Amino acid sequence: MHDGSASGSTVGGAAARAAGQPTPALRTPAQPLTRLVRFGDALWRPALLLGIVFAGWWALSETGAVPHYLVPTPAQVWQTMVDKRAFLWLNTYVTLYETVIGFVLAVLLGLVTAVLIAYSRTMERALYPIVLFAQVIPKIAIAPLLIVWFGFGLAPKIILAVLIAFFPVVISGVAGLRSTDPELVDLSRTMGASPWQTFRKIRFPNALPHLMAGVKVAVTLAVVGAVVGEFVGANEGLGYVLLLANGNLDSALLFADLFLMSLIGIVLFAIVEVTEAVLIPWHASRRSGTPLTTS
Amino acid sequence: MTVSSTAAPAVDLTGLTVRFQSKRTQTVAVDDVTMRVAPGEFVTIVGPSGCGKSTLLKIVAGLVAPTSGTVSLMGRPVTGAQKEIGYVFQRAALLDWRGVRKNILLQAEIRGMDRRQAARRADELIGLTGLTGFEDALPHELSGGMQQRVALCRALLHQPSVLLMDEPFGALDALTREQLNAELNRIWRETGTTILLVTHSIAEAVFLGTRVEVMSPRPGRIVRTIDVDLPAERDYAKVMSDQRFDRFATEIRGLLGAGANH
Which superfamily does CATH assign the domain made up of A72-279 to? Predict the structure, then answer.
């Protein structure tokens, strides 16, 4: 039901922008009340859509139009979640753990690769083909190999999460680092800046808005990577539970499991969004308000 | 400075030629330019777009190496990026995530200047350029004119021997431009900084310069040097109605043909 998690916030953001544009009053910053209004304004559309989908599901399953082993009722799903909360929590925790470790490693590794590519032509020529190869190879196809190599434990899942989340970080990082104003680079040279100073004070902060876009994509992909790893060989995690539920035709458990997977993605995405707002409040995509002066 | 002020010119260009080599063609950007700027002088270079005047400033700053000819700054030959200059570009090139004061202080941070002294100097410059009250404003909250004032403060923070300005007001509207021209004249008089300014506006070149170097279209050559014998303190209305201004402007326009505006 939360399949739209990756695009969810952009939809909400677009709604806020679309609503904010024609009424300048909403664009003035700071007032808590206006902020609340804007938040509500951004929320009601997706909430309404979600409500309609939920109502459709409820009507379809509750009336018996579709058998319960295909589509369970919302009440059944809820009951399963309550009854099996310890089991579900344990497996959610495993998947969450794999996702977060994989995501963090992907960001670190992606950032280092992006810096190497952006700073050195030689490195670019050497690394780009490998990065691209790692991206285009179907992850599901190498998952069995990783299981053979690294066993049934967490390692293959984390590696898959890294492999799948790494690419957008590299691409956005390189784009960000390359977008530095050449005049700023000239300026830093006349200040006698060291390459590290130029990176830390100019190029890296300048790259952050680009980079965060890639990081947001990466966090949603990391969940996919972890679950794919669990599909191929695991005895715990939400991917494993999904196979289990499918084998038993336990559609209520299956739905509960899907819901938890989506929840992981949404919560992690929200955390990245908040981090972005803290890191780059100055960026055009995040600010509202008008210039202080006109002259 | 180590060299006595009477001896060495602030900027000394001799027989400067710059050729850019692309795959098949060779472009001569600057052709045999010789120019001297004495300390405290305000020299403006006026010429049509693409005559290599920006390249000239980059050479003085040591950001571009000339194909032939010699460059020296304060009596020392220019071999790499020069630290004793201040640079202002057409675009303010500010750091979007820093407020006005912190943008100015970037200069101090990278140079490792004394913090307290730099902060005091920044406040002085903020006062001098009329930015008081906007110390913490972010660049996107400022108008183009205000942003350019911040860039000017940043370029002056370390009290450079020479201030290089590359069409600094080219992106501003006419009124803001006039206002900033008058302010720059005042700042030049108050700080005594040597300034080398590039522009394609004839009015700006004459209004600001104690001397105007007129450049031809590519390949860029200096076709005439005009000493502007107007008083150092320049009032916009007075200068514009001065007959000498008209004479200079007409002369330059004749040299540039239809290639320049104003």
Answer: MetI-like (1.10.3720.10)
Q: Express each pLDDT in A47-59 by its tens digit.
A: 899 899 989 988 8
> What pLDDT is stored for residue B223 in this prediction?
87
Contact between A169 and A214 (Cβ < 8 Å): yes
CA–CA distance, A184 with A173 (Å, rounded to integer)? 18
Best of A180, A186, A202, A204 to disrupt the B interface by mutation (most B CBs within 10 Å)?
A: A186
CA dihedral (A21, A24, A30, A36) positive or negative: negative
Contact by Cβ (8 Å): B110, A192: yes
Binary contact (B81, A184; C-beta < 8 A): no
| Chain segment B105-141, per-residue pLDDT in tens | 999 999 999 999 999 999 999 998 889 999 999 999 9
The verdict on a CB contact (< 8 Å) between A186 and B137 is no
Please tell me the distance from the alpha carbon of residue B134 to that of residue B136, in angstroms, as a whole number: 6
Beta-carbon contacts of residue B181 (< 8 Å; ≥ 6 apart): B169, B204, B207, B208, B236
Determine whether the interchain pair B142/A193 forms a contact, defined as Cβ–Cβ distance below 8 Å.
no
CA dist A234 → A18, A84, A145, A249, A264 (Å): 45, 19, 14, 19, 19
DSSP code string of A204-238: HHHHHHHHHHHHHHHHHHHHHHHHHHHHHS-SSSH
Question: Could you count the other beta carbons within 10 Å of the beta carbon of residue A147?
Answer: 19
Tokens of A7: 């695009």
Q: How far apart are CA B104 and CA B122, in angstroms?
A: 7
Query: What residue ranges do the domains of chain A occupy?
Result: 1-66, 72-279
Asked whether B234 and B182 are in contact (CB, 8 A), the reply is yes
Q: Which residues of B touch A294 (CB under 8 A)?
A: 143
Q: Among A91, A252, A81, A88, which Cα is nearest to A157's?
A: A91
User: Nearest to residue A214, comparing CAs of A177, A181, A259, A184?
Assistant: A177
Q: Would strands B211-215 and B222-227 be described as parallel, antiparallel, or unpaired?
A: antiparallel
Asked if A171 contacts A178 with a C-beta cutoff of 8 angstroms, the reply is no
Does the pLDDT at position B171 exceed 80? yes
Fold of B1-84+198-262: Rossmann fold (3.40.50)
Which residue, B162, B167, B211, is CA-closest to B191?
Answer: B162
ipTM given for this complex: 0.84
Instruction: Provide the 8-state DSSP code for B4.
Output: -
